[in-house]
Amino acid sequence: MQELIIFFENITSLQRSLILVGGITFFWSVESLIPLFKFDYKKLKHAIPNFFFTITTILVNFSLAFLLLFVSDYVVLNNFGLLNYLDLSISIYLILGLFLLDFIGAYLPHYVQHKVKFLWKIHLVHHSDHKVDTTTANRHHPFESVIRYLFTLFGVAILGANMGLVFLYQSLSVVLSQFNHANININPLLDKYLSYIIVTPNMHKVHHHYVMPYTDSNYGNIFSIWDRILGTFKSLNPSKIIYGVDTFFNEKDNESIKNLLLRPFEKSKPPTNI
Question: pLDDT (tens digit, 9 = 90+) per residue, 79-92?
């Protein structure tokens, strides 16, 4: 475990980029071979806005990385934060740290964005993809990237997480998000058992159903425990899932990068019923 921490403490920007690109490439290939839904679409064309927002997400996180490094170094040097107050073995430190960072840095901002009206207008850029696949994972408005970053920064501060733990968490977050958005057909029983531990494709796709109450469920990113213990877990047969957002259901509009960038400032439209 110590070796794992040391590796991620010293991980390079190139290695982190390879994790991102490698994950997309792998799951893109798998979903082409065993798709859950056989979408009638041009896969590369569909991915263009998603890749655009992936790039903006990278730019936001890279440009603010110095602050994350500063806060992490400060709390570790001053022995500040929950993880530093407790006398933990390296294994427990790693496992507990990942669970708590996943809650503070992923579940919590996701939940809040669904409950605060203006933040929801930002987040629905992610939900407005009508053909969810692995490229949807980082389809975040730049404002959302900042929001998620600030929650992660807060988590690092109160937990006292070192950068090895932070980079490990971020790497797992990227790969698991690509996995649970991927349009892959997994054996339902296997998906069910996996979903007791991690967020699986069938579990997360319920969250992308176009109407309530399913949209407000399954907020987790890496671990499914938070949805299960906090009462936000829901299940739905994948065959009944329709992607999109009922208040912005025009698929053509939702393919426009310009429209998506301006989406937080638009007025909501009447819900679409199918």
Answer: 999 999 998 999 99
Rounded CA-CA distance 157/159 in Å is 6
CB 76 within 8 A of CB 131: no
Q: Could you tell me if residue 234 is left (phi over 0), alpha (psi between -120 and 50 degrees) or otherwise beta?
A: beta
Residue 35 sits at φ, ψ, to 5 deg, of -75, 145
Rounded to whole angstroms, how far apart are CA atoms 40 and 10? 43
Question: Of 253, 255, 271, 264, which is closest to residue 52 (Cα–Cα)?
Answer: 255
**Cis previous bond, 213, omega within 30:** yes
Give the side-chain half-sphere CA count within 13 A for 152.
Answer: 24
What does the alpha-carbon distance between residue 93 and residue 87 come to, in Å, rounded to a whole number? Answer: 9
Number of Cβ atoms within 10 Å of the Cβ of 265:
9
For residue 184, give the 3-state DSSP assignment: strand
pTM for this model (two decimals): 0.93
Query: In angstroms, how far is CA 88 from the centroid of its own chain?
Result: 28
Contact (Cβ atoms closer than 8 angstroms) between residue 177 and residue 197: no
How far is C-alpha 217 from the geometric centre of its chain's CA atoms?
A: 14
Q: Answer yes or no: is pLDDT of 272 > 70.
A: no
